[in-house]
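Exercise: predict the structure of this protein bound to nickel (II) ion.
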Amino acid sequence: MEERNSDAANLKSEYDRASEVKAFDETKAGVKGLVDAGITHIPRFFHKSILCDDSISTHDLRESHFSVPVIDLGGLNGDPFERREIVDRVREASENGGFFQIVNHGIPESVMEEMKEGVRRFFEQETEVKKAFYTRDFTKPLVYNTNNSLYSSPSADWRDTFLVRMAPHPPKPEDLPHVCRDILMEYSKQAMRVGVFLFELISEALGLNSNHLNEMDCAEGLSLSCHYCPPCPQPELTMSVAKHADIDFLTVLLHDDIGGLQVLNDSKWIDVSPRSGALVVNIGDILQLITNDRFKSVEHRVLASHDGPRISIAGFFFTGVLPTSKLYGPIKELLSENNPPKYKEITVKDYTIQFSKKGLDGIKALDHFKLRLDKIE
Ligand code: OGA
Ligand code: NI
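Solution:
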């Protein structure tokens, strides 16, 4: 009897959660709407789940000697010695922590500042105007909502986001919000140039011809995920981005000086301290797959904060859900008898769908595509 009562209570709480999420979604005003309304307690569905969070202590940094390396791309004036040194550093970072920062990458400071301001203007415009972009339909040129996986993740992230696909088919200018139209175009152009260059360095780091990854179309697609995390009244109860690994080939992230980004290294969370003028680069799942696990797609998260709004722009190099028949598997040149393929071939679209179906539940999507290697007992 008791058991049945608690089942009923569980069902009721599940039901309440679903309707609370729906009611919130229907406001189309996002997390910012909650903060504007003056809430002091965050709704329960933002409370972090034990599935996403883990027992790793957040600020236990003294024990770790790891920090995300900063690579200066400025000295590259055709000097082959200098280039080799940079490629070595890219290799080391990609094999170990999966993350590095770049400075002197050529994107002017003014463009980076204006990009963050453009995102701020989008989220801080009249709610009524913003609502027109609120959707979960990924065929739309710009998708604004609170958490793509609001209905499937065990807990919601404390952020509003808009996602816009800038390549291979740039949106029509009139499909973009006028408050950030020009800067989205300009920043994407610059980010694409940096991405193509990074794929050259990464190809060289793998011992391949400079053009190898670009010829595989790793830089064909670029989507910008623009996050706005309003100040959170109870930051210890939630996350601004729950633990996840990126699904793309490569991510180039621009974040402001609020901080909160952490990467997992040797079972410890390491802060990525904001650095003026720098971009954060990380290896995504599909690059880990095509390098047969040589380069690592590492889990990361963003802590919620009393400070804010925190603004960040993640540039994902991949074509997402666009239809394609192009298959990606471990690169033949990297395989040998001692290094047989660990993954089956996939399309970027199938990988993306597999990932979105499961939501941010703290489990790596890559494991679903591992080949079962026959073990000799
Ligand atoms: C992401 C991400 C980090 C940040 O969008 O995948 O990890 O600082 N973002 O916004
Ligand atoms: Ni990420």
